[in-house]
Design goal:
Layout lengths: L1 H6 L3 H12 L4 H8 L3 H13 L3 E6 L2 E6 L1 H6 L1 H13 L1 H16 L3 H23 L4
Antiparallel strand pairs: 1-2
Helix pairs in contact: 2-4, 2-7, 3-8, 7-8
Length: 135
């Protein structure tokens, strides 16, 4: 239990965990959605994966990550507690808004690889339009 809680004691890992509770995403998607570098995302994913909080499935050249089903089942109370907390914190709500816009857009990892800046701008514009503010 201690190792699990230690692995969640970082804002970026909590942000990752939050979006992976809702969506299956690859490193490049997480990079764009959370505004983190590839190496930072990979490092945090590694910590969560080593504690078996998340799992990944290879799809061609990409690995798509999500919250591990077994972890989720065995830690239902912790998941419920985190979910409630995430719903009250603006940064976590905004991250999910970005994910929703991205997933509804039908953009893909290939789009991010070919023109990351345009994908980021698209998401930013759509989220800003929905909330009436700039993120």
């Amino acid at each position: 239990m201690l190792a699990t809680l230690k692995s969640l004691c970082d804002e970026n890992r909590l942000r990752l965990f939050n979006i992976l509770m809702h969506y299956e995403l690859c490193v490049c998607e997480i990079e764009v959605l959370l505004g983190l570098s590839q190496s930072n995302v990979s490092r945090h994913l590694g910590i969560l994966r080593n504690q078996k909080l998340i799992s990944g499935a290879k799809d061609g050249q990409w690995v798509h990550y999500k919250v591990d089903e077994r972890f989720s089942e065995e830690n239902a109370l912790l998941i419920a507690y985190l979910r409630q907390g995430f719903e009250r914190e603006p940064v976590f709500v905004e991250d999910l808004e970005k994910c929703k816009v991205y997933k509804e857009s039908n953009l893909s990892c290939q789009d991010i690889t070919s023109d990351k800046g345009s994908v980021e701008a698209y998401i930013q514009t759509r989220v800003s339009g929905q909330t009436g503010k700039r993120i």
